[in-house]
Amino acid sequence: MLQHKKFIKLTKKGKTVQVNKEHYLRDDIWSGTPLDPQSDPASNKLDADAKQYLVVDTNVALSQMDFLEHAAITNVIILGTVLEEVRHRNASAYQRLRALIESPTKRFFVFVNDHHRETYIKTDVSESPNDRNDRAIRVATAWYMRRAPSMPIIMLSNDVDNRQKAAVDGIKALSVHAYARSLTDEPDLADLVAGEANGEEGMEVDDGVAGRGAKRKRIYEDHRPMSSITAGIKAGTLHQGSLRVNRFNPYEGYVGSESVGQDILLAGRTAMNRAMEGDIVAVELLPEDQWVGASARLRGPEDATDAAMADCDEDADSAEAGDMARDQDGAGIAPQVAPGEHYGDVVNSGEKRPTGKVVGIIRRNWRTRGYAGSLMPDQPGRTARRGGANMLFCSIERKFPFIRIHTRQASTLADKRIVVAIDGWEPDSAYPAGHYVRTLGPIGDRDTETEVLLLENDINTSPFTPAVHACVPPLPWSVTQGDIDDPNREDLRHLPICSVDPPGCKDIDDALHIRELPNGNLELGVHIADVTHFLHPGTAMDAEAAFRSTTTYLVQRRIDMLPKPLTEDICSLRADVERLAFSVLWEMTPDACTVGVRFTKSVIRSRAALTYAEAQSRIDDERLHDELSVNLRKMNVVARILRRRRAEAGALQLASPEVKFEIDTETHDPLDVGMYQVREANQMVEEMMLLANITVAQHTLAAFAACTLLRRHAVPPPRQFEPLLRAASAAGFTIDISTSKELAESLDKAVKSDDAYFNKLVRIMATRCMTQAVYIGSGDFAPPEYHHYGLAAPLYTHFTSPIRRYADVVVHRLLAAALGLNRLPEDARDREKLAALADNINLRHRNAQMAGRASVELHTLIFFKDRTVIADARITKVKANGLVVFVPKYGIEGPVYLTSKAKEQQRQNVGASASGQKGVAGSEEAADEYMLDEEKQTVVSKDGNRRFTVFDKAAVQISVVEGTGRRRQLLLQLVERSLLPASEQAQV
């Protein structure tokens, strides 16, 4: 049966066109249940002995995924009308729904109702598309009731009007919350129900639940409508950007704005106006006389505790708003900060900067998978309701606000890390409303806390699907004669190749060689695992690798981008086995001047898989004259020359406080922690990889000027260097940031004869002033913008790690196409798709970095959990109420508070009685014991007896304490230097 559809469509250019579509109706679309005598047995997916079948409407499928994913929810009918609408409205929800449909245990059956002759309905011109879809769902539900009369059919909808119309048609319809409460044998199911649009869960009138009651005082301004926001942005009165909340001070946020030319400061939660990290927001600048600077204070880890302990009832929101006001001034600092992190106060606290407020949300970025954390302790006077209680949830990340949830499991969840999703945030509520999603495990358990950090950084830990594994050649695998005879592949098994990697490395993706040529020149070779020989475009494995984009390395765990048979065996360039590679070979003069370069697919056989320490030992021991040791020394000579030339060109030699752990093989707990030692062998390998990446970038860009994937490092804005400039000036040094070359030379001169660690500390500070390097498509930038600032390289890309980075996979395909070995995939020629791919790679790369750092922080906390240590430290920042110190031995950076606890509490209390910035500032003057001199980077006690300046040496006692939301954190306290261990006193 054929139906004709006509409708008007608006094109991208604003023109209207009439579209005619043919819509085919069939009788042989099966119901999926064996209870239907007309059904096809091969298509049956629903159980004959189920308690009931559920039919869900679109809003349930969009907003109740946590509920639908519960094990108790089975035998669900997903109508084609619903599936299509979800696909168009929310990609994440659609993917999760598809996963449920494909699950063999969930028994979710798709019925294409719009193409069945008996369930298709024509559109009524008097009804909206939403009403039409609701009617289609009711018609399909009634059809199922006729086909399986012995099976209870329940339609789930949170739309009261839809349920009332269903009742008129004789259909049993329930809200999700009412249905969840009816399953008394699943008490946790009701906790998974997401709230309605108003941010409150289960607020349906027909469920007998009272609403919000009397209208409460608004805490936040209403968000402006999108039409007003669009007009304001166009007129220049509003500014669009992504909100970044200071990780260490949740009351300070920044919105990057191209129209303003610098970050706009949001001072306080009121100014953020219910926006959260990652939201795309519209900001209105305040009058210039209301602009402020970043705070000059350290924010203590417990500053927000009192607000969290307030009455958790809905009626307590006004009191909570008062509690929030006290904490709007501080620049908070976590007890430990990872390399490259800023404290959010990159400007002088006395220097005003553009300050604004959020007036609208352009796009929410709430996590669909939820936030990890724990419930706050039982609050006195909290309201019990429907067998549960309103509780406050505290995210493990301080940059997110508390979330109000209703749960029946408060006592069970008290000592657990849990996941909570946000449902909404109303202007009369201090906190967003949400619902419980799942339990991760006991607080403090290493595996639980690892799951927390993986969730917080959105790391995909799902096992690879059978479709992905099907793309991997079966083991055992070996190079075939066909590979060796391949005319596009060169046999390089005779070369003296070896790899140099960290100890325990199994995914070896690079190897090296050097040899003398008959003409007296040198041949230098970099050989990279030929991953693209096995990873083909358009396959399930390629799609999964593109999504994951990178391997994530934790202290004790690796989450692979590709299946382990590939990463650890088939592609890994292990010693004494033949492997496929993509090789770059240079001919160089003895003084490392390049004569020529060529690229080839190859077969290699590595002669040794060395650790950095083993390679360094061979380089240093002149008594060793075997071929491998001699070649390593030759390669190191070349690397020194290359490194010197890069430095002369302006490349930066920066530093970061990387640490390594010695792990107990039985308990897996850290036995020791210390700074990671970088040897000359590390630098040798680095130079070879840099040379290969630069060379490949030049070749691929020459072949594909518009669609090459490059690695760009933008010049940092001058304001980002201000912390470094102030600190260096206070120490008597001048840092020139006019060019990377001038900066590099300034850093070389920043040396103190009496402090061997001073220069490294300055370089660590310089590292934190850098912008983030990112992947870009060459067609989206002008050639001068390709420049890599840190490397002083006009062109750079990533080619040398395809086992663990998808960017390198893309570049391998570009290089192979440039050499005529393969055809470039069509997707790679599409600028928009390449830009989207680069964006995802950048996001996943950043997430993996943050997860790795969080893993280091976690294991540092585990190491110090049952011990108290006194260690040498350096002051890296001074604040009005404390210091930030760096502990070289353990790679730890964190705050030391100078004001007493009583004085700090006094400051908080004074601030709570005031409203706005002025009251808080006044409290600082009343309570502080120290005076801050920003210019001299010094903080001095009012009696003049204690003085601390940036780079001063100090001694700190390190221990672990537990704070708000059961967050464990390092506590650093100043002690007399005479208490330092004798070994450390000798070193300093």
Automatic annotation (TrEMBL):
Stated family: Belongs to the RNR ribonuclease family.
Q: Which UniProt keyword terms apply here?
A: Exonuclease, Exosome, Hydrolase, Nuclease, Nucleus, RNA-binding, rRNA processing
**Residue ranges, compositional bias (Polar residues):** 907-916
InterPro entries attached here?
A: Dis3_CSD2, NA-bd_OB-fold, PIN-like_dom_sf, PIN_dom, RNase_II/R, RNase_II/R_CS, RNR_Ribonuclease, Rrp44_CSD1
Where do the segments described as Disordered lie?
904-927
Which Pfam family is an annotated match for this chain, by its short name? OB_Dis3
Matching PANTHER family: EXOSOME COMPLEX EXONUCLEASE RRP44, RIBONUCLEASE
Instruction: Provide the primary localization.
Output: nucleus
All residue ranges annotated as the PIN domain in the record: 52-164
Subcellular localization, as worded in the UniProt entry: Nucleus
What positions does the domain RNB occupy?
489-821
Query: At the top level of its lineage, which domain of life is listed?
Result: Eukaryota
Q: What is this protein called?
A: RNB-domain-containing protein
